[in-house]
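step=encode ok
step=design start
structure_in=
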């Protein structure tokens, strides 16, 4: 229970012009913890994730990720991003490169890993997501579920200590959701520290150590999945869950 704090968010505010999207978020995520973030569309879930690896500039507050103060102007943001893998709704694979080359790109360019080593690592990761035979295929020849599994392998190629998922299955055809959730679940079971924004309530209930319900830019309620889903305390949470469960 004394595991290390991997992410510490303190009084985080983020505005876009006059739109105060995040209005004071406090959140602590410990090593190996799987945190699921749920909440209505527009409540700031994606913005919160993007603040964790500085894809957004923070208006005020502090975010410390793997010991790096992301809000410190002197922080090496590329170094931070090496510690934090992110998977988005859309996979953004490079179409002109093979699957393996997509995965090798960051280790070769950013870590100066040699190509032989990077390819071996790519194949190992492809095996992990069940796609080793697709190493030399182009992304265009893959299904949506396969593309997203490649995107997960690509994020893992930098050996991040933290993985962020922003609705990784919501752009997929329904029959492909399961294979991607399975890969995410295996990652969770392997002890990876993860923050998952998801609409898959059944999955959140199964995989999360803790669920955070966000509404209007604040953490409205959080708790163990069985408590949050089974016995929500806030009217706002009850209302949301009554619509999605
Ligand atoms: P969620 O992921 O919970 O649906 P978002 O974090 O995407 O919510 O968006 C929260 C609010 O922030 C929305 O009102 C959205 O319009 C606004 N927003 C998000 N990104 C930007 C941006 N880059 N510029 C301006 N407004 C933005
Ligand atoms: Mg979003």
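sequence_out=
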């Amino acid at each position: 229970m004394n595991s290390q704090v991997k992410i510490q968010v303190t009084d985080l505010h983020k505005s876009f012009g006059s739109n105060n999207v995040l209005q004071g978020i406090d959140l602590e995520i410990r090593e190996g913890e799987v945190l699921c973030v749920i909440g209505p569309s527009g409540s700031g879930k994606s913005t919160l994730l993007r603040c964790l690896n500085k894809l957004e500039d923070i208006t005020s507050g502090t975010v410390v990720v793997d010991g790096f103060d992301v809000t410190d102007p002197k922080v090496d943001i590329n170094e931070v991003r090496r510690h934090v893998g992110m998977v988005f709704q859309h996979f953004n694979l490079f179409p002109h490169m093979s699957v393996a080359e997509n995965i090798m790109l960051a280790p070769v360019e950013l870590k100066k890993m040699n190509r032989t080593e990077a390819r071996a690592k790519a194949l190992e990761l492809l095996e992990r997501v069940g796609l080793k035979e697709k190493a030399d295929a182009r992304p265009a020849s893959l299904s949506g579920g396969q593309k997203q599994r490649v995107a997960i392998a690509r994020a893992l190629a930098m050996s991040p200590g933290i993985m962020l998922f922003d609705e990784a299955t919501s752009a997929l055809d329904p029959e492909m959701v399961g294979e991607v959730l399975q890969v995410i679940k295996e990652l969770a079971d392997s002890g990876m520290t993860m923050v998952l924004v998801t609409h898959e309530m059944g999955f959140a209930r199964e995989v999360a150590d803790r669920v955070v319900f966000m509404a209007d830019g604040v953490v409205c309620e959080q708790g163990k999945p069985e408590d949050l889903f089974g016995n929500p305390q806030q009217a706002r949470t009850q209302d949301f869950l009554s619509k999605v469960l």
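step=design ok
step=annotate ok -> The first strand starts at residue 5 and ends at 16.
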